[in-house]
Amino acid sequence: MSKTIMIVDDEKNTREGLKWVLESTGAEIVLAQDGEQALVRLGTQPVDVILSDLKMPRVDGMELLDHVREEFPETDFVILTGHGTVETAVEAMKKGAFDYLIKPVNIEELQLLIERIFEQKALKQENERLRREVDDRYGFDSIIGRSAPMEGVFEKVRQVAPTRASVLIQGETGTGKEVIAKAIHFNSPRRRKPFIAVNCGALSQTLLESELFGHEKGAFTGAVKQKPGRFELAHGGTIFLDEIGETTPELQVRLLRVLQEQEFERVGGTKPVKVDVRVIAATNRDLKKEVDAGRFREDLYYRLNVIRLDLPPLRERPDDIPLLVHHFLKHFCKDHGRDLEVSPKAMSLLQNHMWPGNVRQLRTVMESAVILSTGKEILPKNLPDEIRNDAQPANSIRLRVGMTVADAERELIRATLTELQGNKAKAARLLGLGRKTLYRKLEEYEIEA
């Protein structure tokens, strides 16, 4: 990163001496004889750090600090002061100065201070870069899906994200429940705080209890020291409880208390631990049926189910498959140093597969296809046997119970255009639609002819 340091002092010897010392840091040095001249130069040249004398004619160091804090908040400010004005320098730090140095300046102390300032600036820039990366990854635009079912999910996520309401996400395995949970967290006021994910089905209930709530030293064999749980680690942020339907009734009681009281005891402890945590839970089961069967507590269900999101399986949003295919193709081509396209026949097979493993399965298939392809295209032979053997005609109509009239119409138009190889005039006549009506419906349903 480029570095620019401004030295502001009405004594020429001080300015030149400090310049000589700081040039060794590789920074560009800008000189100003008082605060007024410094403000003029700041208007034309950005500066990273200002070293300013406290007492100067016209605009002194304190006045300059006030201007810099208001107009150039990213610029760090260091006060240079004599022994008699240390109290004023401390006051300057309360106003936002980074630090102060006593004249005559100790060269080693100055160099260490400048090094520390630029290290903190580099760390801040890296944090900002990571935040932007997180925003890009978990912003609404980053979730792949433009179909009507997914638009409904996105709209609900936009509404719920700014709140602190508990959310229950239901959907088949592989539909992207954790991706949606992260989108809620990273688009909420809690985005700067932790997002902690726990798979409740991956651990025994004893281990899960300790994992969630922590334990005290001596709580059980092997508990040699106190350990904070995931709820404590998520304080101020969000905890994502995946596969919540796998928990035992005993653990559900403890979870209910956290949701109601925002407190719990560690395993083996008696002192309540207060936390501020938003809970997002997910399951591939129908929790209402689990409640009716007596396997899940009704009171916990209603606490979790303040907002419910039902994620559609991939087979119910076939229009999203090409988007997901190209997204994963780009990702894995970059990972494996390839430059590939998907052949039309391979894309047809991918679009017509039922995808029991949903988006997760499609991701795996695309990585495998990128690795196994030897030419410039992914061909049907590069796809798994179950996809090649499961092929259905591209012009078949995928109807299902519960499909809306609009979805059925979309399928009929898509299949007709496929059969007629994209001939819109013929398709309009066959469907009994005016050409303008067909074009309007193509746009409305986001069908690519």
Describe it for me?
This protein is α/β, with parallel strands linked by helices and 449 residues long. The protein has helices spanning 12-22, 35-42, 61-71, 86-94, 107-138, 148-160, 177-186, 205-213, 230-233, 249-261, 287-292, 298-304, 321-336, 344-352, 358-372, 385-389, 405-419, 424-431, 435-444; strands at residues 4-8, 28-32, 49-53, 76-81, 99-102, 167-170, 195-199, 238-242, 263-264, 273-274, 278-283, 307-310, 341-342, 377-378. The protein folds into four domains: 4-129, Response regulator (Rossmann fold); 145-312, Rossmann fold; 315-389, Helicase, Ruva Protein, domain 3, CATH 1.10.8; 405-444, Homeodomain-like (Arc Repressor Mutant, subunit A, Orthogonal Bundle). It contains 19 helices and 14 strands. The mean pLDDT is 87.
Poorly predicted residue ranges: none
DSSP E strands, number: 14
For the record, the count of structural domains works out to: 4
User: In the CATH hierarchy, what is the architecture of the largest domain at level 2?
Assistant: 3-Layer(aba) Sandwich
**CATH topology-level name of the largest domain:** Rossmann fold
Main β-sheet, spatial strand arrangement: 2-1-3-4-5
Report the top-level CATH class of the largest domain: Alpha Beta
**Largest sheet properties:** 5 strands, parallel
Strand content: 5-15%
Helical content band: 40-55%
Radius of gyration (Å): 31 Å
Shape descriptor reads extended
- Given the structure, what is the number of helices? 19
